[in-house]
C-alpha cells in the first residue's frame, strides 16, 4: 500500500477520538439573495450599530466566502444589522451593479465585497458619498475615493510557510499549486508557495495549473490526477474556492497529501458529509477574512479614520498563517514544524521579507519565474 495512504488511514482512525468542534459542517447561515432591481426604495433608518451589506458570489465554498460570513455573524451578534447578498458567479456580472444599488437604496451604510467587485464599487461610490465601501483582498494602493477603503492580505507570507512544509513532506521532489483563476492576488499565493518550496529544497519542482473556475471540482480533480500521473507530484496546494474540493478527491484517490486554503479545511470536512476528505489535508493556509472584518468595523465603531485608505495585513497581524491542529502535529515531523514556526517568527519581526507577485516588474517576468520552478 502507498506509504502516504497507509499514514492517512492510520490518522483517520486516530482522529475519530478527537473532540472536534463543528465549523464548515454547520448549516449555512440564512442570507438574503434578492433579485436585482434598479427601482429606488426609500432608505430606512440605521438599526443597532449600523447597517452592513456583505456582497458575495456564493456561500458554501468552505473557504474564502464562508470565512467572511463567519466574521459577519460575529458582527451580527454584536449588534450590527448585517445582510448577506449572494450574487452568483461571474455569469451574473452584468447584474452586480443592480445588487449594489439595491442595497444602497435600502439604506445600507456600509457595503463590503471582494476584489471581484472593485470596478463596480469605484463606479458607484461617487454617486453615494454618504455611504461607505470596503473592498477586501485587493491592493491597498488603490485610492481616489474618500468613501472607499481597501484591505489587502500578505497571502505570500502564509503560502511561503506551507510551501516549506510541502517540500519537506514530498517524497518525489515535485509538488503542485493549483488555482481557480489567475489574477494578481492569486499569483501572490503562487509566488509565496514557490519561494517557500525553494527555500526548503532548491531541487524540489513546483508544477502549477488553473482550472478556469472557482466552482468546478471536476476539472480540478482531473488536473491533479494528471499532475500526479505525469509529473509525479505528491503534495497539492489548492487556491481555488469551491473547485478545491476536486483536489482533495484526487489526493484521496492517489494517496497523496493536500493543503487547504483560507479556512481550516481539515475541520470543515471532518464535520461534513464527507469526513474522509479531511484525512488528506495536512494543514490549510489561513486568510482570516472574517477576523479582518471584525477588526475593521471595531475601528469604525470607535470613530477611527479608516476611510479612503488601504492596509495590508499579514503574519504580524495574525491575518494569515496556517492551521496547527492535532492532525498536522501527528503527520508533520516536529523538526519541520519547528522550522516553520521559526520562519514565521522571522517574518513577523521583519527579519525576513517574503518575495511577492507585486515585486515583479512585469507579467512576463512572473511567468518566467513560474516556469523556472518546474
Tell me what you see in this structure.
The protein has 374 residues and is of the alpha/beta class. It has a domain at 155-286 and 319-373: Response regulator (Rossmann fold, 3-Layer(aba) Sandwich). It is 41% helix and 17% strand. It has helices at 3-15, 64-77, 96-105, 118-124, 155-169, 184-200, 217-231, 244-254, 265-270, 289-301, 326-331, 334-349, 363-373; strands spanning 51-56, 81-86, 110-114, 132-136, 148-153, 174-179, 205-210, 235-239, 257-262, 281-287, 310-313, 320-322. The strands form two sheets. The protein has a six-stranded parallel β-sheet with strand order 2-1-3-4-5-11, sandwiched between helices. Helix 2 (64-77) links the parallel strand 1 (51-56) and strand 2. Helix 2 packs parallel to helix 10 (289-301), helix 5 (155-169) runs parallel beside helix 6 and helix 7 (217-231) crosses helix 8 (244-254).
Q: Roughly how much helix do the residues carry, as a percent range?
A: 40-55%
Category by helix and strand content: alpha/beta
Order of helices and strands: HEHEHEHEEHEHEHEHEHEHEEHHH
The strand order across the widest sheet is 2-1-3-4-5-11
CATH superfamily of the domain at 155-286 and 319-373: Response regulator
CATH arch. level architecture of the domain at 155-286 and 319-373 = 3-Layer(aba) Sandwich
Number of helices: 13
Amino acid at each position: 500500500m502507498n506509504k502516504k495512504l497507509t499514514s492517512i488511514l492510520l490518522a483517520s482512525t486516530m482522529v475519530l477520538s478527537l473532540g472536534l468542534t463543528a465549523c464548515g459542517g454547520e448549516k449555512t447561515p440564512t442570507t438574503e439573495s434578492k433579485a436585482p432591481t434598479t427601482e429606488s426604495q426609500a432608505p430606512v433608518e440605521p438599526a443597532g450599530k449600523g447597517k452592513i451589506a456583505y456582497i458575495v458570489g456564493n456561500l458554501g465554498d468552505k473557504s474564502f466566502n464562508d470565512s467572511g460570513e463567519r466574521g459577519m455573524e460575529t458582527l451580527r451578534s454584536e449588534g450590527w444589522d448585517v445582510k448577506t447578498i449572494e450574487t452568483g458567479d461571474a455569469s451574473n456580472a452584468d447584474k452586480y451593479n443592480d445588487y449594489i444599488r439595491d442595497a444602497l437604496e435600502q439604506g445600507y451604510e456600509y457595503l463590503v465585497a471582494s476584489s471581484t467587485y472593485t470596478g463596480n464599487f469605484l463606479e458607484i461610490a461617487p454617486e453615494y458619498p454618504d455611504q461607505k465601501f470596503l473592498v477586501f483582498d485587493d491592493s491597498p494602493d488603490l485610492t481616489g475615493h474618500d468613501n472607499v477603503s481597501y484591505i489587502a492580505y500578505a497571502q505570500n507570507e502564509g503560502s511561503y510557510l506551507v510551501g516549506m512544509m510541502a517540500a519537506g513532506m514530498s517524497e518525489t521532489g515535485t509538488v503542485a499549486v493549483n488555482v481557480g483563476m489567475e489574477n494578481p492576488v492569486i499569483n501572490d499565493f503562487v509566488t509565496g508557495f514557490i519561494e517557500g518550496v525553494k527555500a526548503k529544497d532548491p531541487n524540489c519542482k513546483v508544477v502549477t495549473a488553473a482550472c478556469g473556475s472557482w466552482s468546478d471540482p471536476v476539472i480540478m480533480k482531473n488536473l491533479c490526477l494528471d499532475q500526479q500521473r505525469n509529473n509525479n507530484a505528491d503534495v497539492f496546494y489548492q487556491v481555488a474556492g469551491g473547485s478545491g474540493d476536486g483536489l482533495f478527491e484526487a489526493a484521496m484517490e492517489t494517496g497523496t497529501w493536500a493543503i487547504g486554503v483560507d479556512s481550516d479545511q481539515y475541520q470543515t470536512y471532518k464535520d461534513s458529509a464527507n469526513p474522509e476528505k479531511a484525512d488528506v489535508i495536512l494543514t490549510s493556509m489561513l486568510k482570516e477574512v472574517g477576523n479582518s472584518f471584525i477588526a475593521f468595523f471595531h475601528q469604525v465603531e470607535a470613530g477611527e479614520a479608516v476611510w479612503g485608505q488601504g492596509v495590508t495585513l499579514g503574519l504580524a497581524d495574525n491575518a494569515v498563517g496556517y492551521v496547527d491542529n492535532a492532525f498536522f502535529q501527528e503527520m508533520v515531523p516536529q523538526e519541520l514544524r519547528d522550522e516553520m514556526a521559526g520562519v514565521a517568527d522571522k517574518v513577523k519581526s521583519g527579519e525576513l521579507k517574503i518575495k511577492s507577485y507585486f515585486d515583479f516588474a512585469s507579467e512576463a517576468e512572473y511567468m518566467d519565474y513560474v516556469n523556472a520552478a518546474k
